[in-house]
Fold this protein.
Amino acid sequence: MKHYYLFLLIGIALYSCQEKSAEKVTETQETTAAGKDFEMYTMSEMSLLMEQMYVDNQRLKERIMKGDTIGAFPNHFMEIHRAAMTDDTENDAFFKEQAERFINAQKLIYEDPDNAKTHFNEGVKACIECHQVKCGGPIPRIKKLYIE
């Protein structure tokens, strides 16, 4: 008799769980069917450029630390002056000044490889100073570029 009650309780528990799962599926379908449109985030030209510059600078940092040859200045960095931003009002005098500081520091790495570490860190500093005013989110990531 004990086994009969045990099987009965297990059966009830399983049955109740199945109904809740079915309810959740129905609620999810209704929520999706309620007309909510999902939009995929697309990065601006500037965001894409900054992501590429970050990757380029990670590689450059490794070359500087190993003492490898630096190579040539990546000309796509100059797009920083023309790339469309998410919010065009952010492309103000402050941004233009910081972008120019960053470009100058980057160019000096290639022109004066004996002081590449100093110039590299100046470029990182320019990025951080700009992001402190414009968009603070990537600052912890940018700080990882510093060469100690």
In short: Helices lie at 2-33, 45-66, 93-111, 116-133, 139-143.
